[in-house]
Amino acid sequence: MVTLQPLPNATARWKATVGGFLSSGWYHANQTLLLGIALAVAGNFLISISLNLQKYSHVQSARLANQKPIYRSKLWWCGIILMGIGEMGNFAAYGFAAAMLVAPLGSVAVIGSALISVLFQNENVRSEGVLGGTLTIAGTFLLVTFAPHVAQEPTARRIQSYLVSWQVLIYVILGVITFCVLLYFYKRRDVKHVVVLLTMAALLASPTIISAKAVAAMVILSVKGAMQLTYPIFYLMFIIMVLSCVFQVKFLSQAEKLYDAKVVIPVNYVFFTVSAIVTGAIFYQELQGMSLLSGFMFLFGCLLSFVGVFLITQNRGKEHLTSFYIDSGHIPGLTMRRGKIQPESNSLSYGSLLNEGESVKTQN
């Protein structure tokens, strides 16, 4: 009779899993872990649907002669609601598993977006997409297997001690400075590149992950009988979680408005995963006790996931432009100041010709 005991690191868990994967003993010993994974997978799939709905609503709004505020679109609100439900699933998952385990499952959103494009937008199945999906799934499996699986129960007192540690204070100061610099370029210099927008969203994701994991863990402990809701730190973390989520969604929605979802989703996945790994390592110290082999396989899984995401999304935007791009040189007798009739793909007027008045001026 084998007695199940907590495994010291991911390598030991891997050996145990090989011997009894999906056995009844393995299942009962990992029910909490499986629940966290299931919540994260379902939540990220809903987020992929949400982002595609929001992008579609922006495109439909831009085609209207009399454009209305986007918040009046029912489709946009459906996307927002689905995103909220998906984020709630991710929030609950942080209470059952480490941040380094939950965050890489964001690749489900990337694969889900690719499937939606194939099934509902009549995109062709490409060999790069199949290879990318395979690499992403393999990378996610390695991430889940070799990420820290130690069950953590951050109590209110433990979270308070984490907040005043020197490494966390340095991390917060550097994050605030970086965010302020990017916000200056965004507001004052009108720099709205996708990397700038999603970097700010990733910086806001750091306090979101910290506070979401703290709130979820304290709620679960309170349900189990160890009351944590009487500590002020619980309400402080709840406020931080709400505020950071609101501003994170703002920058993510802005990126979706200016750029295609097939660009925003993979970049956001990479940035969010890196942010979650750094946050888990610094704040919750999830790398402690991790062996060299586990660390190497974990990083290798990250690399596979990132490469897979790149392969899934490459050339999809180029194929779209090839079908609808119009060069003014192909139209006899038309001379224009600009070399292209088609506006840039990140413009709200993408897919339409220039205004008639502007065309007349250019011909004169």
Explain this structure.
The protein has 15 helices and no strands. It has helices at residues 10-20, 24-29, 31-63, 74-94, 99-102, 107-120, 127-146, 156-163, 166-187, 194-224, 232-258, 261-282, 292-313, 316-324, 356-363. The chain is mainly α. The relative contact order is 0.13. Helix content is 71%, strand content 0%. The N and C termini lie far apart (91 Å). The protein is globular and about 55 Å long. The longest helix has 33 residues, at 31-63. Helix 6 runs antiparallel to helix 12.
Mean pLDDT: 77
Radius of gyration of CA atoms, rounded to a whole number:
23 Å
What's the number of helices?
15
Helix content: over 70%
Dominant shape: globular
What is the topological layout?
Blueprint: H1 10-20, H2 24-29, H3 31-63, H4 74-94, H5 99-102, H6 107-120, H7 127-146, H8 156-163, H9 166-187, H10 194-224, H11 232-258, H12 261-282, H13 292-313, H14 316-324, H15 356-363
Helix pairs in contact: 3-4, 3-6, 4-10, 6-12, 6-13, 7-13, 9-10, 10-11, 10-12, 12-13
Quick take:
The chain has 364 residues and is mainly α. The chain contains 15 helices and no strands.
Primary descriptors:
15 helices, mainly alpha, disordered N terminus, 71% helix, single chain, 364 residues
